[in-house]
Amino acid sequence: MPSLHDIATWQPLLRLLHAAHADTLCAPGGHVSGQIGPGAWSVPLPYRPPQPGRASLVSDNQDEFDAVGLVVEALKEDGSSGVSFVVEAASTPGGVRLHLIESSSSTEPGIATAHPGALLLADGALPEPVRRLPDPVPDAVPAASADVELLRRTLRERLPDAVGATEEEIAAAEARLGVPLPPELRALYQVVRGRYEDWDDSRDPYDIIGCELFPLGEVYVADAASRHVLWRFGAMEAVETGPEDSVQQLVGSPGWIVFGDNGGGDRIAVDVTPGPDGHVGQVIIIGHEGNIGAGLVADSLTDMVVHGHFGGRPVPRVERPPLVAHVNHVSVPSVEAAAHPGLEVLSIGVWKEKPLSLAPVFGLPRLRTLCAYEGTLADPCEISRLTHLEYLSLPPAEWRVLLDAGAVPTGLLAAGIEARRQRDNPLQIIALANEILVLHGRSPITEITVLEGTAS
User: Fold this and answer.
1) Cβ(334)–Cβ(356) under 8 Å?
2) For residues 31 and 115, what is the distance between their CA atoms, to the nearest angstrom?
3) Distance from CA of residue 177 to its chain's centroid?
4) What pLDDT digit, counting tens, does each position of 204-226 carry?
5) Which residues pair with 453 in a beta bridge?
6) What is the C-alpha to C-alpha distance for residues 323 and 364, in angstroms, rounded to an integer?
7) For residue 325, is pLDDT > 90?
8) Inter-residue contact 234 to 209 (CB < 8 Å)
9) E strand or H helix at 32, and its extent?
């Protein structure tokens, strides 16, 4: 079959794109762009809704599925994880120029767009919340409800035919995890090892245990590395655990031992690194949609399995100056109002008044992230006065000012370019990204293949 870099692979998709965007591709500088991966794609083609009274079918948009399918097959053949593309008009009548942009080690992938994701400006650098380890809580102890023998006895009564894990299997799991199983979790697996073939169809393990139990061989430690967080998201978060919190609000912890699922993708874990108001061995839930934090399910595994407690405990609301401040026309009213010594993240969004000065946040010792919407900064060069920045995300025009003035902060670990999806040409954004990468001694984005084709 045609390869990824053969124009024949792309020709059906080019025809659809040209038909949908003929005016754009005929205008000077006009372009359309998208991204295709083996399992998903983002392509700017009009969606055809289903006929009234029935669900949407693949056949409703069959031409798109067929055209993208050729590219997907070529990606699989090539062993590629995905490709971004930009289509422009060529100099010949009816011609188009296709730019294929492949992944770069200097950037994170863009999300459903051909624009590059975060620029990685230092080897192995991670957002600050990802680097955070749990704080020690030396006074933490198991909850009064934790009762290993009651848990074991109850499970045997409810699951009389269950097959338990052997001591050798438990020892092997502990060696793989690098930590011992907490006593209650060990007792659970001594009664039921969790293999799918062991379950009796007449008994629902979810109802008996309170979650979808993982086989012992699939238990894992939910440390920060297990929760892949992109820079553009991780840099905008802050770890904040107060004395009233039972769970430390981390990205991950070496003390979060995942043993199940709630059936919707959220992980259930035993926590041996609790927050100041928590208990060693409490049960927590780690959401699959968030980048940080976890919630309390029960004070102990006994409390969850035996007594059916799943709602955690109420946490008193404590007002503190926010570590992450969103300055915009409906939230924090000014940079001055956001400024305090603990501020870590400043995000300036849509602003309807005159541009803002950053002077109120000069010298803040913990300010590590700045993200600003276009036109919101009175003087982008003030950014050079923010000496602790790790992540900076700006629109192209503001980056241009910094680059021309030699005012790009030197301590950045990563950077973002806030481009408009179909307004800003990804090729121009890549050129700007390369200036920033080279300035920090990083390899530029070079994996771009140009193909010529026709729109017919």
Assistant:
1) yes
2) 13
3) 24
4) 677 889 999 999 999 999 999 99
5) 96
6) 12
7) yes
8) no
9) strand 31-36
pLDDT at 297: 97
What pLDDT does residue 423 have?
82
Buried b / exposed e over 76-104, threshold 16 CB at 10 Å, is eeeebebbbbbbbbbeeeeebbbbbbbbb
The C-alpha atoms of residue 391 and residue 369 are separated, in whole angstroms, by: 5
Q: Is pLDDT above 70 for 203?
A: no
- For residue 199, what pLDDT band results from cuts at 50, 70 and 90? low
Higher per-residue confidence, 206 vs 334: 334
Structure tokens at 98: 């296709």
DSSP per-residue letters across 68-119 = HHHHHHHHHHHT-S-EEEEEEE-SSTTEEEEEEE---TTBPPPSSSSS---E
DSSP secondary structure, 123-184, as one string: TT---HHHHPPPPP-TT----TT--HHHHHHHHHHH-TTPPPPPHHHHHHHHHHHTSPPPHH
Contact at 8 Å (CB) between 145 and 303?
Answer: yes
pLDDT at position 356 over 70: yes
What is the residue-wise DSSP string for 204-233?
A: -HHHHHSSEEPPGGG-EE--GGGS---HHH
Helix or strand holding residue 33 (H, E): strand 31-36
**Residue count of the chain:** 456
Nearest to 185 by CA among 266, 294, 268: 268
- For 426, residues 6+ apart whose C-beta sits below 8 A from its C-beta are 31, 33, 84, 86, 101, 113, 114, 115, 116, 419
Please state, in angstroms and as integers, the Cα–Cα distance from residue 256 to each residue in 174, 179, 226, following that order: 14, 11, 11
Q: What is the CB neighbour count within 10 angstroms for residue 416?
A: 25
Q: If 0-12 CB within 10 Å is exposed, 13-18 middle and 19+ buried, where does residue 292 land?
A: buried
Give CA separation, 383 vs 343, 362, 407, in Å.
Answer: 16, 9, 8
For residue 23, report the phi and psi dihedrals to the nearest 5 degrees.
-65, -45
Q: How far is CA 158 from CA 162, 194, 202, in A?
A: 9, 14, 12
Closest by alpha carbon to 272, among 347, 179, 351? Answer: 179
Say what the pTM is.
0.91
- As given in the structure block, the two tokens for residue 59 are 């056949």
* Phi and psi angles of residue 132, each rounded to the nearest 5 degrees, phi first: -75, 135
> In the prediction, which pLDDT does 2 show?
65
CA torsion 191-197-200-203 (nearest 10°) is 70
